């Protein structure tokens, strides 16, 4: 991604100069006027690398507001860093834009809203744009973001460190995004499922715009034995964590933290409990914390203003974690995790 | 991009486990079994960051051999690192795959050939896979690669360092890839343009498979005042370098190094000279070298087995570089550079 201030440049050059060069406030981005970017790695740190992509028609709706699409593209990556205890250093962006007329049009106004929101998030999360590539495509809008983060050398929190006796902890509330998608797909209005306008807006916004738990990264790094973000559904992601750690787990469904809106929707339509437990896009932190670290972890979460709840325990053994209902019996889910394939 | 060895995983998990986990030989990739990768930055170095994407139907043909597509996706990024004097440390991959049946099918055989060639190149260029993301898309195959490289702190060769009197140097031969694309688009057979089968194959292979000049990265770093790779056409890329450096240049067209095949084709069809000078996809190094550094630069290139040729001189002033023909008059090009927009 390179920009020129010369209108004789290509369309790509002009697009970058107009919309993305203003985001390149970090000196390492070289003003997007060179072929590469340069980053001085912080001393005593490991780099933490992550790439996540989203595609119109798969991960968002083509007519979603471009500002929200930009936020989602960056924040799903920031969520991964936070869940691994890392702080962000910067990101690179690949943006594929429809070559032909699209509906809605991906025009100057769309790009201005997209880049504006991306710049605001880059500033808010301390994760500056370093560079990228803009390509025309015969296909839909696609955004791939690579974030680079840092942890003190040797302190990355892995998936595989969970041990029997560790407590299973999640941040925030679970299932809001999956229920937001239900509302979106069913074109549910306020009043449907007994939801107020605010509750409906809450669920939809949780689907559209993840809130990475960056403020909790240090607490994860200091206290968790294993961690990941919940992006493909709580049940499936916990199963993955357990598999890599060589353990299993028991989760009390009644302790899984739900928003008021999710409670209201489930009261009206309890069949959506499966979406809550196995739907995607939560972007909360799922981690395992030894019993003697639980109090300091929860205190750190509270100090950071992020809710955190103990929902179960790691157990010796193999196999999918048991999700135990209020009656003491495990609940079976048709699928534990979301997959686009 | 995470892999599991469990067939109960999602389709994406299985795809990654089968095709990409075998490439994750570097310990920092964590076997593609975690959410992120970890890289220990080399001491005393700046990181050099670059992202380049290619899309079927735009940057390659959907029915190109998958091994060649993989090589192109990685090598265009390695070419950027080499041209900036950087050595590769590793890369991340975003792969968007058609959700529906495609022609040719993007099936297991396609993925095996793609991943196999990618793994060979990763090994050959010392640039291991650290991670990535695989997404389904309603659109065509798209591949975005982010490479991370390194230079000793403060030694990145920028675009903006060219000074009047510096010699303009290019590696290898120019125009082969653009002429290969001409052959591909015109479905030219051996014999057309008077080309032998070998000459035709040479031009086509130069279009399909860039050869990054990694062996010359150190010489660029030690001797060049400005450098970039020729990806959008020699004339346009030199114009960009001059603009950022605040200078102009004169290039003798007769000194621009051409392959035997390019000479033969131009003899038969001189109208394709414009494609040679302004076509894309050369992936050679374009750099400026002070007169007193030219001999050691050329000696280093020779020692590395890479051809390098002085083709002109940086001049004080502004404006597009003059491309001077054998008659001493500047040649005008309809467009100096290739753009997809």
UniProtKB/TrEMBL annotation, chains A, B:
Sequence positions that bind Mg(2+) 1: 51-52, 133
Binding locations of substrate: 59, 281, 338
Residues at which Mg(2+) 2 binds: 52, 80
Swiss-Prot/TrEMBL keywords: ATP-binding, Kinase, Magnesium, Metal-binding, Nucleotide-binding, Thiamine biosynthesis, Transferase
Residues that, per the record, bind Mg(2+) 3: 35, 80, 229
Sequence positions that bind Mg(2+) 4: 35, 80
Binding site residues for ATP: 132-133, 159, 231
E.C. no: 2.7.4.16
Chain ranges of the PurM-like C-terminal domain: 163-319
Claim: Metal-binding is one of the keywords in the record: yes
Note: Reaction mechanism of ThiL seems to utilize a direct, inline transfer of the gamma-phosphate of ATP to TMP rather than a phosphorylated enzyme intermediate.
Function per UniProt: Catalyzes the ATP-dependent phosphorylation of thiamine-monophosphate (TMP) to form thiamine-pyrophosphate (TPP), the active form of vitamin B1.
Name under which the protein is recorded: Thiamine-monophosphate kinase
Gene name as annotated: thiL
């Amino acid at each position: 991604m390179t920009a020129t201030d010369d209108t004789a440049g290509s369309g790509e050059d002009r697009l970058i100069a107009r919309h993305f060069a203003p985001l390149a406030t970090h000196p390492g981005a070289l003003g997007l006027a060179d072929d590469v970017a340069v980053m001085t790695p912080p001393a005593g740190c490991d780099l933490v690398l992550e790439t996540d992509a989203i595609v119109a028609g798969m991960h968002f709706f083509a007519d979603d507001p471009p500002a929200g699409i930009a936020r989602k593209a960056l924040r799903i990556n920031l969520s991964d860093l936070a869940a691994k205890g890392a702080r962000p250093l910067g990101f690179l962006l690949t943006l594929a834009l429809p070559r032909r007329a699209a509906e809605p049009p991906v025009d100057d106004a769309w790009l201005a809203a997209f880049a504006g929101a991306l710049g605001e998030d880059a500033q808010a999360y301390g994760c500056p744009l370093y560079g990228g590539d803009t390509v025309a495509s015969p296909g839909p809008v696609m955004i791939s973001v690579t974030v680079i983060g840092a942890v003190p050398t040797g302190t990355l929190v892995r998936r595989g460190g969970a041990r029997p006796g560790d407590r299973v902890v999640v941040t925030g509330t679970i299932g809001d995004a999956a229920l937001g998608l239900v509302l979106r797909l069913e074109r549910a209005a306020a009043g449907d499922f007994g939801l107020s306008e605010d509750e409906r807006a809450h669920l939809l916004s949780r689907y559209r715009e993840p809130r990475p738990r960056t403020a909790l990264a240090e607490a994860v790094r200091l206290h968790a034995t294993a961690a990941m973000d919940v992006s493909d559904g709580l049940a499936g992601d916990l199963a993955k964590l357990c598999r890599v750690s060589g353990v299993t787990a028991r989760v009390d469904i009644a302790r899984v933290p739900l928003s008021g809106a999710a409670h209201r929707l489930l009261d009206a339509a309890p069949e959506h409990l499966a979406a809550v437990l196995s739907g995607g896009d939560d972007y909360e932190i799922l981690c395992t914390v030894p019993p003697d670290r639980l109090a300091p972890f929860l205190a750190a979460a509270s100090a950071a203003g992020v809710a955190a709840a103990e929902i179960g325990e790691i157990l010796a053994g193999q196999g999918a974690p048991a999700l135990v209902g209020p009656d003491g019996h495990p609940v079976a889910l048709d699928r534990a995790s979301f997959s686009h394939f």
